[in-house]
Amino acid sequence: MLAIVFYEIPMQLESFNIEIINNLFMLAMIAFSLFIYTWIFRIIYEARRQAEEKAHLELVIKNYKNTSENITQIKKMRHEIKHHLNTVLVYINKNDLSGAQKYINSVEGTMPNNAPIEYTSNLLINSILTEYKQLAQSLNIKIDYSVAVPENINADDTDICSLLTNILDNAVEACGNINKENRFINFKIHQKAKFLYIGCTNSCDSNQLRYSGGKLISIKNNPYKHGYGLKIIKEIAEKYNGAFNTEAHGNQFSAKVNLCLSD
């Protein structure tokens, strides 16, 4: 009887150990599968996000080129204004008011419609600011610009475009969550020597803001899909040995970027 007991115990222990090993193996396989699934999902989502970002940049750059062509046309018209005025004076001196009126009408017809405001001689920045001015107006957002930059900035156009569009996109989105009468955006971009400063303060819903470990986090649904804009801004700031920080006070949110441009 004792021999049987000593025989069965090792068999039961062996069976128990095999069951534990099998369970652990199954758990490991499940965990590994979840890891692979999450990894693949993030790769697909990141690729899609980069494609959307590229499409956005291409659209803005296309708009920038169109705007630059319009501005060039406007400058050409300004250059010819003197000649047009002299022609009008010739008609007036001859008392040919009808001819003067027809000439003025013909000149007016050659002027580009909806000419963009020239905030700066930097065509890319001017194009982006013009685009967001129109967007803000369509959403009842009061937007003010303070711009002091040279015609050429020693930074990649794609980086400047990404910085400005992501900052302004976040500001417009934040304004969309509050009452129309309280919506505003104050945007600044200044360059002094080799330092470029970009600052944006906008109205927001403070209930939509959360900080963890000193970092701003999203409380939107699927938060892992959001926050890429801030990440892109931070990466570009680091690329230029600069800094990026955000602040929230009451129902106002501020984003500040400082870049150190090469000589």
Could you provide a short overview of the structure?
This protein has 263 residues and is an alpha+beta fold.
Task: Annotate the secondary structure layout.
Blueprint: H1 2-93, H2 97-109, H3 123-138, E1 142-148, H4 157-175, E2 184-192, E3 195-203, E4 210-212, E5 215-217, H5 228-239, E6 243-249, E7 252-260
Helix pairs in contact: 1-2, 1-3, 3-4, 4-5
What does it look like?
By secondary structure, the protein is α+β, with helices and mostly antiparallel strands. It is 58% helix and 18% strand. It has helices at 2-93, 97-109, 123-138, 157-175, 228-239, and strands spanning 142-148, 184-192, 195-203, 210-212, 215-217, 243-249, 252-260. The strands form 2 sheets. The chain has a 5-stranded mixed sheet with strand order 1-2-3-7-6. Helix 1 packs across helix 3 and helix 3 (123-138) packs parallel to helix 4. The chain is elongated and about 115 Å long. Residues 1-9 and 221-226 have low confidence and may be disordered.
Search tags:
single chain, two-stranded antiparallel ribbon, 58% helix, 18% strand
Name the shape in a single word: elongated
> Structural class of the helix and strand makeup?
alpha+beta
Enumerate the spans where pLDDT stays under 50 for 5 or more consecutive residues: 1-9, 221-226
Largest sheet: 5 strands, mixed
Number of strands: 7
The spatial strand order of the largest sheet comes to 1-2-3-7-6
Rounded radius of gyration (Å)? 31 Å
Compute the number of helices.
5
Average pLDDT for all residues: 78
Helix-residue proportion: 55-70%
Straight-line N-to-C gap: 93 Å
Strand content: 15-25%
Query: Order of SSEs, N→C?
Result: HHHEHEEEEHEE
